[in-house]
Amino acid sequence: MLGAMDADQAIADLTEISPQVRDVVVIGSDGALAGTNAGTARAEAVAQAAQQLLAAADDARSAHGAGATAQLEAAANAGSVFVIRDADRVIAATTTPEPTVGLVFYDLKTCLRSIDEPRPRRRARKPDDAAA
Amino acid sequence: MPRRKVVTGFLLAAGSVAGSVLVRRRAARRRERVDLYAEDGTMLSFADDSPEGERLLAIARTILP
Fold it and tell me: Residue A66 in 3-state DSSP?
């Protein structure tokens, strides 16, 4: 399991292990951009589209009597858009056409979790411990 | 020898036709769609010809190349 890390670092690790993933944005609980590998304008566009997709997805699901959307994939010929909603955070990514869906979802969740996880507390080492 | 060439040519042509048919079938099978998953694991899938799929794909296309 990855330790807690900076959002940009987590995204850099994600794009390194998953070449299908192109642009990634992490939206914080306050709705602000928490991390991205894209330029400012592009990141804002992806973040806005992700929020719109989640809203439209919730509408579509409620129209069919289903609960809120936790994650989605919009698969177009030019590529796919993935959006995952955690409790209060959102991670969204664009990918190349025909991605390995399960793998992309897994990698995005791992990325989000690695940002979420609190840094483990280190107990101060006492002189007695060192002697033991 | 010429007969062998004819057979080879025929086999190459047949292989090309079969290959193009497979590629076309695969491309036809790849449809645009949107899959929505809930916390409980249920999934709703909308094809591009449904109103929901059309609406969601229109948003997605704004950020795809």
Answer: coil
